[in-house]
Amino acid sequence: MTADPLLRMRSITKSFLGVRVLHGVDLDLYPGELHALVGENGAGKSTLMKVLAGVHRADEGTVELDGTPVSFDHPVRAQRAGVATVFQEFNLLPERTVAGNVHLGREIRRRGRVDVRAMERATGDLLDELGLEGISPRAKVRSLSVAEQQVVEIVKALSQDARIISMDEPTASLADHEVEVLYRLIGRLRERDVALLYVSHRLKEIFDLATTITVLKDGQRVDTVAAGDIRPAELVRTMVGRPVSQVFPDRLEARGEHVGKVRLDVRGGGNEQVDGIDLTVRGGEIVGLAGLQGSGRTEIARALFGMDRFTRGEVRVDGRRVDPRSPRRAVRAGVTLVSEDRKTQGLALNQSILANGRLALDAVWPLGTRRRSRRLPAIFGSLELVARGGHGQEVRFLSGGNQQKVVLAKWLAAEPGVMVLDEPTRGIDVGAKQAVYRLMRELTAEGVAILLISSELPELIGMSDRLVVLDEGRVADELPGGSDEEAVMALATGAPPEQEPGRSPDRHGPHSSGAGPGENGPRSQHEGAAP
Amino acid sequence: MNRPSLSPSLLSPRSLHRRLGTTGLVYAALVVILAVSAVLVSARGASLFTTANTVDLLTRSSLLGFLAVGMTLVILCRSLDLSVGYVAALSTVVAATVMAGDPGRMLLGVGSALGVCALVGLANGLVVTKLRVNPFIATLGMGLVVKGYLDTNFQGPAGEIPAAFQTLGYARLGLLPVSTVVMLVLAVAAVWMLARTRLGHHMYAVGGDAEVARLSGVRVATPVVTAHVLCSVLAGVAGLLLAARFGTGNALVYDSGYELEAIAAVVLGGTYLLGGRGGVAGTIAGVLILATLDTVFNVLAVDPFVKDVLRGTIVIAAVALYARGQSSRAAVRVRFPSGGPPPPEAAPDPPGGGGPRDPEPAVGGAR
Q1: What's the rounded mean pLDDT across residues B105-134?
Q2: Any idea what the CATH number is for the domain that residue A443 is in?
């Protein structure tokens, strides 16, 4: 294991649109080793992986494979060189068989014609070798579970004689028993002297599997350690420890009539992705939904806004029970969602700023929108929306920050009582971020209840009055605003907390240890329900 | 890890679909339609399976079959060809004028007609892949170009097909018209090509997801261009058959709406209009279904407008059925499967209904 590294990446630097996402990162991979890459959302893990895969090209730095410098300008080049990547979105054809997918682009031929039998045999042999007899090479990929599809991806990589396989959050979409299969598979791969690069948020997995851990933070390599030399708590500290550089605007004096009243109340909400969600948001309050990607944050937002639905539990808005079965109903009930993907879900890119601003109004209240739409110019003004072409300009020409302001204006015009903001500052510049923060403070002062989802922990902690931390689709716990990042990360990654060793594993009482204003809501309800 | 297939009711369309696959379902539908038609026709005191009717059915299907087999290849690649009607018309004219009634020039006529069609297909394919023009527009435009050429140069019949070639249009081997045999041979060749050659595999790959294909090292343009060339050549063959039947070249056959009928047959045969799924075997069944309907309507002397209504309804119903059988299985893991469908007793409350809700205490209500 102390031989020469199979792969040596040196001082890799990469910028997107002038923003540096990788600052001179070094990484070595050895055969048979599993190298875990950890860090917060946005630390640069995926970018580093994509540089290795040939999806992105590094601006600076060198990549050496077996001591020879290489430069992959296309993913196929990397694959041919033995570097395979299993991305989160699978690169499989659902309508084709397992064998057809594994050999796509490299079909086995005999006398000029494709030998389907031979491809099935080769794929079956690989599957057997990996102890995965359950998957038939003839099955259509569409009929496989997500975990099985992932296995097919890995088999595809192996059939190209990959010596390095990197995996981007391979367990993000797997159930527990499926993770076992992956563990076994990883063991077999290491026996075959494949070097593995593994990105994951889940600390348990990292400590189960990794031989070496590299921590990235804000695009820089903080540390590379042997997995045995570090404890989970230390690792969390290394991942998040950073100077507080952002300043968030102060809370404003409350003046709205709804301030302090419960505006959004979810009891036992659940569907296929989340379960047992209890949430209370009062007027004038910002509640942050913390959690890793895939922990159920966006799913809750979608359910509240009627894009998916809760199949269990109940939702109340301003004390009235609602069933948001469609976005239209949600808006009418006073709930709006600023979605995480503004380009595909938030805006009609080919239409003008003004048309986008009126979109929700015109759609949901076909009559009598005049009064509301008259407020639009004022809303645009208060958001400091700067558009050189005036309000008739098409939205696609605007910067990300201004586009986000248009989305916000669209929903503000609907005068919502509850706003769900899913990653409201993603991909926008610092100035626009500050404008969004100020707007949030302004809205809460007027009595709007805000549910904030953000992958940027400092932002979430700095803006929220309370934090609800999700893990695996359930509420892990509730923390007061201003908690430290380590506490949030520890809850979200399912790492054992150091101070409370005796905590019971079941999470049915999310409020049992919650300290803060959220405690009042459910308790008074329980008392009221008692005869 | 294979889940057991649980099919509670064997006769529901969905479980049938699962057992037979889409192609099997289309053939089952063909059998059902043939049976129903035979009953309907015999109720009128006639017989569906007379020599005349059978030959009529098969002859109809050979013409449509050439066009639909080619269209299947193009649609599998997630493209489309709206120029096949015009290309077939072009083929009749080129063949008839080159042959000019001389039996010695038959091969030359066939070769030049198919060559010209191949060039049109090549142009279609290159415009779609290299200029990245939407195939709908690209082939519609190409069709109009061909139409303009035909309209300016050929009013009325052109050239002459020698008698020897004309017999191809009518000759039969027993009950089977020669043209049907040729069509079936070409269809089998296409099935083999899709299943057993790299080109065929890549057609499915490109149609299924061009980006996945590209990232797997497939040259994305090649299958699409090839499919367009083959589609146009097959349209040319259809044109040769038309020419043999008419005895001359006739530019006006483009008015018959062949391209849409071919697309209808492909879709009826279970090929997914957005590519990557389906095959030629299903298309042949689709062609036979449409031909059966035509023959039956003819025998029963159904009003031509009702005929179109029925055909349209059947195509739409078939595609709706396939869409139902195709359970949309997104690659999202179900974390809490107990969620399932919403419980029926939880009647959704209209959000506006602010009436008094009985047992639940109002949140924060004073007691």
Answers
A1: 96
A2: 3.40.50.300
* Residues 235-294 of chain A whose Cβ lies under 8 A from any Cβ of chain B: 261-262, 265, 270-275
A287 in helix, strand or coil?
strand
**List of chain A residues whose C-beta atoms are within 8 Å of the C-beta of residue B215:** 75-76, 91
CB A144 within 8 Å of CB A135 = yes
If asked whether residues A435 and A491 sit together in one domain, one would say yes
Closest CA–CA distance from residue A525 to any residue of chain B (Å): 6
Q: Which residue has the higher pLDDT, A237 or B287?
A: B287
Asked if residue A460 and residue A389 are part of one domain, the reply reads no
Domains of chain B: 13-325 (1.10.3470)
Q: Flag whether the ipTM exceeds 0.90.
A: no
CA distance A138 to B190: 22
Residue B360 in this model has a pLDDT that exceeds 70: no
Q: Are residues A446 and A467 in the same domain?
A: yes
Query: What part of B 140-159 touches A (C-beta under 8 Å)?
Result: none
Is the predicted pLDDT of residue B347 greater than 60, yes or no? no
Say whether both A446 and A484 belong to one domain.
yes
Range of the domain at A406: 352-410
Q: In terms of DSSP H, where are the helices of A273-419?
A: 297-304, 327-333, 353-364, 370-374, 376-382, 400-412
Number of folded domains in chain A? 2
Give the model's pLDDT for residue A348: 87
Q: Do residues A468 and A434 share a domain?
A: yes
The distance of A87 to chain B (nearest Cα, Å) reads: 12
Q: Which of A13-27, A311-325, B63-77 is predicted least confidently? A: A13-27
Question: How many A-B residue pairs are in contact by the CB < 8 A criterion?
Answer: 145
Least Cα separation, residue A212 to chain B (angstroms): 29
Residue A383 lies in a domain: yes
Q: A380, A410, A440 — which closes off a domain?
A: A410
Tell me the per-residue pLDDT of A51-103, one tens digit each, with 9 for 90 and over. Answer: 998 888 889 999 999 888 988 888 888 888 899 888 877 789 988 999 999 99
Helix residue ranges, H only, A31-145: 45-53, 75-80, 98-102, 116-129
User: Do B351 and A322 lie within an 8 Å CB cutoff?
Assistant: yes
| One domain, residues A370 and A296 | no
A382 and A325 within one domain: no
